[in-house]
Design a protein that fits this description.
The chain is of the alpha/beta class. Helix content is 58%, strand content 13%.
Length: 325
Amino acid sequence: MSWLTWLSPRRYATARSVRAGEAAAEAARKTVQEQEAREAAPAAAEEAPAAATGKKAARAAEPEFPVPGDVKAAAFFDLDNTVMQGAALFHFGRGLYKRHFFRKRELARFAWQQAWFRLAGNEDPAHIQDARDSALSIVKGHRVSELMAVGEEIYDEYMAERIWPGTRALAQAHLDAGQKVWLVTAAPIETATIIARRLGLTGALGTVAESVGGVYTGKLVGEMLHGPAKAEAVRALVAAEGLDLSRCAAYSDSANDIPMLSLVGHPCAVNPDARLRRHAREHGWRLRDYRTGRKAARIGIPAAVGLGALAGGTAAAVALHRRRR
């Protein structure tokens, strides 16, 4: 294991962050092992031509990286605004609202909490606690299998068309080089796993909600997988998989993920916010921006953009509900 594993900054990590990261890594590895056990050889053979096609395009874009055949390397991708436009948790919430999991008043409150969470990060524990409790109250008492089935439908309805092609090509380049590729997100591990599988990735590290007998209890294991907790999840998975952090890569749009990006030897800012763009330039990190010029110019006012997007999504969901009544 690389010396980076022990010398990378951990000053922002708490015991709950470490527990959340370890739980995410454990859940991710278990999910992948179960999936591999279910997969048949013919399915793998059918995917080979598609991978070969992606390989040609990805290598043309990134000729010197990643290194083919490096089994000690892996890639870790943030989800929201890195792999997918918008917040996965909000899209998931829209889908649950459509299926009458909660009322429009709760949707508006949930939307506001998610906007605040993305703006304030870990600077206001009270708001984060409120947002977390709101999300957990929605799924409490529901079966894990029910949420997984609904998640498949929601992906097709709200997420499939929001994947950034450029970021997907970066992930494919790592897969074609023989490396594992993981999503790392604050979204629920079940939602993140569905997205990872649909994109052909190895698996996902996400927030782990406690369940007993296949039913959600309304509690988390540790805390939300955000900021320092993401770094702890990557650290735990790298240790379990026997990888070398100095040979791994990480991709994110947010300065909140600097702890995760700082862990690896090949960090990359994708569609970065202003703080991350500045940090990436100061440290010589790679930069990729797949937004239009108009969208990229907005990075200086992330709060307004986040609130506007969430408010627009809320209005759309409420309007849809009214039309159906």
